Amino acid sequence: MARGVVLAGLALxxxxxGFAGGEACPGTQPGEAAxxxxxxxxxxxVPPEAGLRVERVEPVGDACYHKVTFxxxxxxxxxxxxxxxxxxxxxxxxxxxxxxxxxxxxxxxxARKAMAELLExxxxxxxxxxxxxxxxxxxxxxxxxxxxxxGLLEVEPMLKPGGEARLxxxxxxxxxxxxxxxxxxxxxxAGFQSVGAFWAMHDALFAGQEGLTAGNVDGKVREMAARIPxxxxxxxxxxxxxxxxxxxxxxxxxxxxxxxxxxxxxxxVNGRQVDGIRDAAGLHAALAGGCGAAGRCxxxxxxxxIGGMENADPVAAR
Length: 318
What we know:
Blueprint: E1 2-9, E2 12-20, H1 32-43, E3 53-60, E4 65-74, E5 77-85, E6 92-93, E7 95-98, H2 103-118, E8 124-126, E9 133-139, H3 144-155, E10 165-171, H4 180-193, H5 195-207, H6 217-226, H7 233-241, H8 246-258, E11 266-269, E12 272-274, H9 280-289, H10 299-302
Parallel strand pairs: 9-10
Antiparallel strand pairs: 1-2, 1-7, 3-4, 4-5, 5-6, 8-10, 9-11, 11-12
Helix pairs in contact: 4-5, 4-6, 6-7
């Protein structure tokens, strides 16, 4: 029986192809992976030093389409690119749409998978783990738009103590920012001592953003650390000197890259990436939308009118 599948995107016209189920699916031919990697590198002008290669090829359902994962090395570290290939590996697309699956159910499944990845490992968070809404922010302490978003998060009612949303912070220092990585390491080093110390360093870094430079960041973060109650400054200094938190920052950045983060700030609400948050009302609407149609949140979340919080400038730089 023919099964409807649509290949869409990547400058290809959408192609609907019927596949007769039950026939044997063709496998990859010798040299196929190298040919695909060479094509994609040439198509998207990937520099040779990135070493783009096919990491794995997986079947998509029972329709003989293939999910092809490419891997390369870029300015933000290792990255992945996922494309879908037709049964004969001739056509590539950024997505494959199964017309026999409900789109809403697919979105729900994708959000659940993303949420599971976003909450893997160690991270700084505030709010109840039982909150119906979890907002994950990938941020860069040198990014002015991230500082602006932080101001909106601070006044968001759903993120207040006892509110209906939980905030998770993930590091995403961008390569073009010359002190962002050291700032992220400082926040992570503080976080190794306590969650409270992380948030205190987080707040201090954003508050002092304009005065930080690549030349003074190490000295400045030590001054900030000395003002954090309960933080062991000597232990913090050793952590910074030995770059003991670098691995944690890189893991966050690699997670963001896998999930398609290309700029900061990047906001995920219950596993769905939310773009275009411009002001407090927009942030509140995004968080309230995470409550779902079943109305898992109370009246505070459903009220989308917040007086006196609007900021006309866009928060996210895409």
